[in-house]
Amino acid sequence: MNEKALKVLEYHKIIDKLTTYAGSQPGKALCRGLVPSDDLSEIRRMQRETSDAVSRLCRKGSVSFSGLSDIRGSLKRLEIGSSLNIEELLRVCRLLETTSRVKSWSRSENREEMPEDSLEQMFADLQPLTPLASEIRRCIISEEEISDDASPGLRQVRRSMKLTNEKIRTQLASLVNGQARTYLQDAVITQRNGRFCIPVKAEYRGQIPGMIHDQSSTGSTLFVEPMAVVKLNNDLRELEIKEEKEIEIVLANLSALVAEQTEPLNYNVLLLTELDFIFARAQLSRSYNGTEPEFNTEGRIRIKKGRHPLLDPKIVVPVDIRLGEDFNLLVISGPNTGGKTVSLKTVGLFTLLGQAGLHIPAFDHSELSVFHEVYADIGDEQSIEQSLSTFSSHMTNIVSFWEQADEHSLVLFDELGAGTDPTEGAALAIAILSNLHRRGVRTIATTHYSELKVYALSTPGVENGCCEFNVETLRPTYRLLIGVPGKSNAFAISEKLGLPDYVIEEAKEHLTQEDEDFEDVIADLETSRATIEQEQQEVLRYKQEIEELKKRLEKKEDRLEASREAILQKAREEAQSILREAKEYADDAIRKYNKLGKESDASKKMEQERTKLREKMSGLEKDTGVKASKKPSKELKARDLRIGDSVKVLSMNLKGTVSTLPDAKGNLFVQMGILRSQVNIKDLEKLEEETTSYKAPKPGHTGGGKVKMAKSYSISAEINLIGMTSDEAIVELDKYLDDAYLAHLSPVRVVHGKGSGILRKAVHQYLRRQKHVASYRLGEYGEGDAGVTIVEFK
After folding, report:
1. pLDDT tens track for 38-80
2. Which residue from 127, 178, 467, 509 lies 20 to 30 Å from 252 (Cα-Cα)?
């Protein structure tokens, strides 16, 4: 990319912001050297890396590369046999500690849950070399100190130095605090030229024999090394020389260890620098809520809600810009300070950022094209020194790229043709734009010239755009509207600012009829656009309301369906419980019937049991609030009944057979299964179906035997359950077995078929729980085999 476009579009300001996010000097150097690329595969790779880094930062937080430094120069010295100093070894150690920290950060998430990304291999290739880093830290405490434990020789030398120091201080302390105290300027022990001395008054220098190393500025004090400590000071100096040699040996040994790992260390520097660079791009993206743009090579641009990254995100108005689909040339008009130049710079800067691998502050799925060059003629570069006016500076810039611009270029003009005679400037601007349009160059130009607006309206592949302006508030809305030419609104703005009306009216008189007609057309277009946009917003709002209502209705239906299923399930469970209780009660009633049938007062006791049952049913009906009794559909009279007629006892909700005719009070006996109860004719409802007739019992007998006999005539010795579900089959089987047991039919044949065996299994499980079933077995050959079960009653 040409340097002028990078400067005009303020690309370097973004790079400066990017550099602040890098944690190391090598990373900052990469950031400063970042330039846009025109290689599509490289652009997509860098964009993918930036997106993956953003994803990792969102999941795991930030990572620091502060310990990274470029040690490749030190490693070169090792290759020629040199040793590293303390500072260089510490830089190697910090590099390895940074490598370990970064690698651990990458592993801090569950690897099975973490998606594979483009950075995974880079993190995997990092080599912390923990033993080497630990050895350097063990030997070197800081840039000024080597540990005593770095080597046995160094430990021994330092122990000897400590003992010698103590001896020297003991000797000198005896002099300072003893008889020589009167000869001393101060009772202190000091050092001169690395040797221990005491401050002696000049007039007593002969009283303390020794070597004079220094004197005070006034000459009144001499710093004397007493003869008693000269040998000890010499020994201490020798030990210091040995210490330096031992330190050199330690550093040489550490350097040898580092030299063995030069290749992985070089690779770590490269990887960490690249990762620091990538994560700096990711942090920049997060700072302005950037997204990864989609790239093409067809010259197509579609920016969705783009925000210029150098403007305050709290106040910047997002713009939608498109180019390269229906039109290749966009002419943007509108008043000054309306946002034309910002829109122009946004397109150019987004192109540069995207091709440099940086995210753009726009909505997802924004689209950019790969351009080989971006040419921008923005701003006033007039120069007195170069004798350039505003118009001349613009023309000089245009001429500089005129021949190079092609279909792979993006050209941006701000106020094309300005700074000269409006008629000539407009004609020149139309000629420049027409030529670029014929060459297929993607171009965006801002203007105030009406001629350019007309040109855009009348030329295929060229489109008008405008920056919206609110005349009532004298403030621009900064919205870019494509498809509508803009008005400069000079008269309206001047009137609002207080210019007298007569001046404005006189100015309007100088406009030609064509100018007025054109301005009227633009005003009508603006009004129509505003109306259509308002209607579109209303339609969108209605759609949103309909969608919301639809969602609420679906949720309500889901809740109702769930409630319905819950109610049905509860009803099934309650019905099952009622059936089970009724079956148990019926079984108990049958046992009592069989037992009481042998006693003389059986009728009385059974009537008592019947009364208890009625009282229980009444209690249940009262609890549930349901009235069991209801009026018969047709009031019966005594002459309507005959012995053997089928009736329904309404109060008990049971069917039965008339056993006796009504008496004078309307009371009669009805046989209901095993129960024989006295009821009133008003509580009966006659049934229409035919019943099996039987004779009335003789006085003194219950008639139970004949009821059973009549039942046996109507009950078959076989029941067919094939085609039913398990639940339906069990209900039918339960009723059938009760009737068969009362009719003394045994054995009976239950036909359930073979199939998958589910129905057979359900029948057998049911039979296993029945107390009045003596045994059951599968049918034998000739009886139906495994498709039939034979049941014997007790």
Report:
1. 999 999 999 999 999 999 999 888 899 988 888 988 899 888 8
2. 127
The CA-based diameter of the chain, rounded to the nearest angstrom, is 165
User: Helix/strand/coil (H, E, C) string of 391-421?
Assistant: HHHHHHHHHHHHCCCCCCEEEEECCCCCCCC
Its pTM stands at: 0.61
User: Which residues on adjacent β-strands are paired with residue 296?
Assistant: 369
CA trace torsion 507, 509, 510, 514 (10° rounding): 120
State the number of CA atoms in the 13 A half-sphere of 615 facing the CB: 6
pLDDT of 489 > 70? The answer is no
223 pairs with which residues across the strands? 199, 214
The DSSP code for 272 is H
Are the beta carbons of 147 and 89 closer than 8 angstroms? no
The secondary structure of residue 746, as a DSSP letter, is -
Strands 329-333 and 442-447: parallel
Segment (H or E) for 138: helix 130-139
Contact in structure between 4 and 376 (CB atoms under 8 Å): yes
Q: What is the pLDDT of residues 160-202, one digit of tens each?
A: 989 988 888 888 887 777 777 777 878 888 888 888 888 888 8
Residue with tokens 């509207």: 481
Cis ω for the linkage preceding 485 (within 30 of 0) = no
Q: Which residues contact 421 (CB under 8 A, 6 or more apart)?
A: none
pLDDT at position 279, please?
95
Single-letter residue type at 535: E
Characterise 446 by phi-psi region: left (phi > 0), alpha (psi -120 to 50), beta (else). beta
CA distances in angstroms from 470 to 410, 447, 475, listed in the order given: 31, 19, 5
Selection from 463, 452, 466, 431 nearest residue 325 by Cα = 463
% pLDDT > 70, the chain: 83
Q: How far apart are CA 424 and CA 575, in angstroms?
A: 96
Question: For position 422, what pLDDT does the model report?
Answer: 81
- How many angstroms separate the Cα of 686 from the Cα of each of 635, 669, 682, 683? 9, 14, 11, 10
Of 509, 510, 504, 484, give the one whose Cα is nearest residue 492: 504
d(CA 551, CA 555): 6
**Which helix (H) or strand (E) element contains residue 375?**
strand 373-377
The answer to whether the beta carbons of residues 15 and 31 sit under 8 Å apart is yes
Residue for token pair 């690309």: 11
Distance of alpha carbon 187 from alpha carbon 177, whole angstroms: 7
Of residues 157 and 564, more confidently modeled: 157
- Please report the pLDDT score of residue 382 as a whole number: 43
The model's pLDDT over 3-35, given as tens digits with 9 standing for 90+, comes to 889 999 999 999 999 999 999 999 999 999 999
* Secondary structure class of 26 (helix, strand, coil): helix
What three-state secondary structure class fits 519? helix
Q: Give dist(CA 409, CA 437) in Å, integer.
A: 12
